[in-house]
Trace amine-associated receptor 13c-like
Amino acid sequence: MNLTALNQSDVCQEYWCPERSVSLSVYVILYVAAAAVSLLTVCGNLLVIISVSHFKQLHTPANILILSLAVCDLLVGVFVMPLHLSWVIESCWISGSVMCSALKIVNFQATSVSVHTVALIAVDRFLALRSPFLYFEKISPTVICIATLFNWLFSLFYNFTLLFVNGNFADVTCPGICIAIIDGVSSLIDLIVVFLMPCTLIIILYTHVFVIAKKHATAIRALQVHNSTQSSKNRVSDKSERKAAILLGILVIVFLLCLLPYYICSLVIPYSDDDLFHVRDVTVMIFFLNSTINPIIYALFYPWFQKSLKLIFTFKMFNKDSSLMNVL
């Protein structure tokens, strides 16, 4: 997604595809690297999707949001990354107008859903720590599924409308490039809806989450140890919620670190500035790489994902009633 306000005349100037200036070996290496990154992204997120979908113990509100984020990342790995990396390597769009239109809607959709899903993760963790009794009473997997479905449908309607009213699905396209044409008003609306509002909410809520988690930790250390079983269960449950908040906080922080350079670059560097073209490309790559990094974060920090991977790679998930296996 490009937040710079663009008009057809700004980008559809005379454009020609430059001759390939690198050797054949470098050219092949670039394509192999692009394919490897895309494949890693696809495989990693497929494993997350299979794990959360298959094992019933993982059907929790927080994990359903992780599943939604993994589906977005899978779309990026399957569709957005290969096309965009091919464009960068070739220095020219060679996939035609239909694929360009498809890339625009998938790219906008994946970006929008990802940002809003991370915002929902922040809301989920805030409610779980701030009002745990209300959370366990009101926030069920069904409620989160409805919220996730609404997120996807709203994003699809919003992005299709945004692109359509700006003429991005017209038959006339800019030869050699694939850029979303967005006017000034639409660009401002998009900035508010997809960047400022959700990111502000994420930062505010996670600031509160870490403050609450710190208070809980201090309170627990201050309490005398009781032999009551119920008291012990409460402490374990509270500790579990704080740990979940911290782990998801890592996910959110990495997401924001990958997102911010892209949006800052889109805001301050006009598309017509050819001198900074490669800077803009680098920030786009960093943003796309977040889809590759997320499954790695799960593998490093989430015990349930590590156990799920062990069951998947040892083919135990194909056993009868494997969905009921303990992965926590």
The chain has one domain: 23-324. The two ends are 38 Å apart (CA to CA). The mean pLDDT is 82. The chain has ten helices and no strands.
